[in-house]
Amino acid sequence: MNIVRNAIAQVSIETGIAPESIRHRSYRGHRTKMPVVARWRVWKRLRDLGWSYPRIAMAFDGLHHTTILHGVRRLDEIEGEARRARCAEADALFAVSASGRQFVDHGMVGA
After folding, report:
1. Domain encompassing residue 98
2. Which of 5, 27, 54, 71 is an S-S bond match for 65, by CB 3.0 to 4.6 Å?
3. What's the predicted TM-score (pTM) here?
Protein backbone atom coordinates (compact mmCIF):
# COMPACT_ATOMS: atom_id res chain seq x y z
CA MET A 1 0.00 0.00 0.00
CA ASN A 2 2.83 2.40 -0.78
CA ILE A 3 0.50 4.34 -3.06
CA VAL A 4 -1.89 4.99 -0.17
CA ARG A 5 0.98 5.96 2.15
CA ASN A 6 2.40 8.32 -0.47
CA ALA A 7 -0.99 9.97 -1.06
CA ILE A 8 -1.47 10.39 2.70
CA ALA A 9 2.05 11.83 3.07
CA GLN A 10 1.47 14.34 0.26
CA VAL A 11 -1.86 15.51 1.68
CA SER A 12 -0.30 15.68 5.15
CA ILE A 13 2.43 18.00 3.86
CA GLU A 14 -0.10 20.17 2.00
CA THR A 15 -2.53 20.47 4.90
CA GLY A 16 -0.28 20.20 7.95
CA ILE A 17 -2.43 17.41 9.34
CA ALA A 18 -0.63 14.39 10.79
CA PRO A 19 -0.78 11.25 8.62
CA GLU A 20 -2.31 9.28 11.52
CA SER A 21 -5.20 11.74 11.69
CA ILE A 22 -5.80 11.37 7.97
CA ARG A 23 -5.48 7.59 7.97
CA HIS A 24 -7.66 6.81 10.97
CA ARG A 25 -11.07 8.05 11.98
CA SER A 26 -9.99 9.17 15.45
CA TYR A 27 -10.94 12.74 16.27
CA ARG A 28 -8.77 13.01 19.37
CA GLY A 29 -7.18 16.42 19.43
CA HIS A 30 -9.17 17.74 16.47
CA ARG A 31 -12.13 20.04 16.89
CA THR A 32 -12.57 20.75 13.18
CA LYS A 33 -13.44 18.81 10.06
CA MET A 34 -9.98 19.32 8.60
CA PRO A 35 -8.87 15.67 9.00
CA VAL A 36 -12.05 14.59 7.24
CA VAL A 37 -11.46 16.91 4.28
CA ALA A 38 -7.82 15.79 4.14
CA ARG A 39 -9.01 12.18 4.02
CA TRP A 40 -11.35 13.09 1.17
CA ARG A 41 -8.37 14.58 -0.69
CA VAL A 42 -6.50 11.28 -0.37
CA TRP A 43 -9.52 9.35 -1.64
CA LYS A 44 -9.84 11.75 -4.61
CA ARG A 45 -6.17 11.26 -5.48
CA LEU A 46 -6.60 7.51 -5.42
CA ARG A 47 -9.69 7.81 -7.65
CA ASP A 48 -7.67 9.98 -10.04
CA LEU A 49 -5.13 7.13 -10.17
CA GLY A 50 -7.91 4.79 -11.30
CA TRP A 51 -8.71 3.10 -8.02
CA SER A 52 -12.29 1.89 -7.54
CA TYR A 53 -14.42 3.00 -4.60
CA PRO A 54 -14.39 -0.52 -3.08
CA ARG A 55 -10.58 -0.74 -3.39
CA ILE A 56 -10.12 2.62 -1.62
CA ALA A 57 -12.62 1.54 1.04
CA MET A 58 -10.66 -1.65 1.73
CA ALA A 59 -7.42 0.34 2.03
CA PHE A 60 -9.09 2.48 4.71
CA ASP A 61 -9.96 -0.22 7.23
CA GLY A 62 -12.83 -1.66 5.23
CA LEU A 63 -15.06 1.39 5.07
CA HIS A 64 -18.17 1.06 2.94
CA HIS A 65 -17.53 2.13 -0.64
CA THR A 66 -20.38 4.65 -0.50
CA THR A 67 -18.48 6.49 2.26
CA ILE A 68 -15.67 7.01 -0.24
CA LEU A 69 -18.15 8.06 -2.94
CA HIS A 70 -19.71 10.62 -0.59
CA GLY A 71 -16.31 12.05 0.40
CA VAL A 72 -15.13 12.44 -3.18
CA ARG A 73 -18.40 14.11 -4.18
CA ARG A 74 -18.32 16.49 -1.20
CA LEU A 75 -14.74 17.46 -2.00
CA ASP A 76 -15.77 18.17 -5.60
CA GLU A 77 -18.61 20.37 -4.29
CA ILE A 78 -16.31 22.26 -1.93
CA GLU A 79 -13.69 22.79 -4.63
CA GLY A 80 -16.39 23.86 -7.10
CA GLU A 81 -17.71 26.45 -4.65
CA ALA A 82 -14.20 27.80 -4.08
CA ARG A 83 -13.59 27.95 -7.84
CA ARG A 84 -16.86 29.86 -8.39
CA ALA A 85 -15.95 32.31 -5.62
CA ARG A 86 -12.52 32.95 -7.20
CA CYS A 87 -14.15 33.52 -10.60
CA ALA A 88 -16.66 35.97 -9.10
CA GLU A 89 -13.81 37.85 -7.42
CA ALA A 90 -11.85 37.98 -10.68
CA ASP A 91 -14.94 39.24 -12.53
CA ALA A 92 -15.40 41.98 -9.93
CA LEU A 93 -11.76 43.04 -10.23
CA PHE A 94 -12.03 43.07 -14.01
CA ALA A 95 -15.18 45.20 -13.85
CA VAL A 96 -13.42 47.74 -11.63
CA SER A 97 -10.33 47.84 -13.85
CA ALA A 98 -12.50 48.23 -16.95
CA SER A 99 -14.14 51.26 -15.37
CA GLY A 100 -10.90 53.23 -15.57
CA ARG A 101 -8.87 51.99 -12.65
CA GLN A 102 -5.61 50.14 -12.85
CA PHE A 103 -4.25 47.58 -10.45
CA VAL A 104 -0.63 47.43 -9.45
CA ASP A 105 1.14 45.00 -7.12
CA HIS A 106 0.81 47.25 -4.06
CA GLY A 107 -2.86 48.13 -4.45
CA MET A 108 -5.46 49.89 -6.55
CA VAL A 109 -4.57 53.24 -8.08
CA GLY A 110 -6.97 55.49 -10.00
CA ALA A 111 -6.22 56.10 -13.67
Report:
1. 2-110
2. 54
3. 0.70
